[in-house]
Specification:
The protein has 3 helices and 5 strands. It is an alpha+beta fold. The longest helix has 18 residues, at 59-76.
Length: 127
């Protein structure tokens, strides 16, 4: 196996793996369990999910698929969005999310929190 991609989290790693497999390249994700445990103690950036390509002869083709993915994500603004702090509970939330994972509050400046865009789309039962 050949290591090809260090992901920010398991979701991204599995997405990249799916992109490769959709193009006929056999891939595997490792390290996702260790990455999940990183929140228990001090942060160790060396503990990240890693995508591996089974056939080293597919490396260049896989790399091109990943480059297209990263270019597309940067163009959409998803991959480069910074982590934000929830205004409701002060929890740290990954930049790719519009809602706080802890309390469900919306990201400041999101379309759903600006004006009336998205009003009525979400039902909250605070009772």
């Amino acid at each position: 196996m050949t290591r090809i991609y260090f992901a920010e989290n398991a979701m991204i790693a599995h997405h990249v793996k799916s992109l490769l497999e959709a193009d006929g390249i056999s891939a595997e994700v490792t390290g996702e369990t260790l990455a999940a445990m990183a929140g228990i103690g001090p942060v160790d950036l060396s503990v990240q999910p890693v995508v591996w390509v089974h056939d080293p002869t597919e490396y260049e083709r896989a790399l091109e698929i990943i480059r297209r993915y990263e270019k597309h994500e940067r163009a959409d603004g998803h991959a480069t969005r910074p982590t934000w702090s929830c205004p409701n509970c002060d929890e740290s939330v990954d930049g790719g999310f519009e809602l706080c994972w802890h309390c469900g509050a919306e990201r400041p400046g999101s379309q759903a929190s600006d004006g009336d865009a998205g009003q009525g789309d979400r039902v909250r039962d605070d009772a």
